[in-house]
Design goal:
disordered C terminus, six-stranded mixed β-sheet, 6 helices, alpha+beta
Length: about 190
Amino acid sequence: MRASGAGATALLATAGEETTGLAAGNPPAGALEVCSVRVGQTLFGVALTHIVEIVGEAHPQMVPLAPEFVGGLVHYRGDVLTTVSLRRLFGMEPREGPQDMLVLEREDGCFGLLVDGVGEVLTVFAADHEPNPSVLDERRRSLFGGAYKLRDSLLVMLHPDTLDPARLELAGWGRPVASHAERREPSR
């Protein structure tokens, strides 16, 4: 994994300290190393094995008529990546200014995942994992891999494969999701 940008460099420079003194890439049995990211007030995690690079201060170029979740296009090492904005995907207000971007690998290339900020590398353990709550609708449940209990918060795991822009479009994420109030049956 490579890091670029001021915040991303600091993340990897301290990764050994943040993973309870272990060198990044050598988690103990039953453990998983994840990169923590923030979107709004929520802490999310992405397994390090899916991350190619962390790019600080990405400046995506908007794409007219693109699905709502597309954050834009970013030039990346001689290529152009489609980015997925977690804020837009979750129906949040867009964030002004640059955002951090995780470059995630897929079978046929890479895509970018735009987040408010990149945190630290954490080592999480299976004993602290909780499955997705049953109240999540099927579409949202497909994005998350449960949550890990941390000392003072929860770390919601993301499924990078389902965040692929092509898969999101096929799953119907290009259309706005009805709010809870809009899904209720009209009164008679």
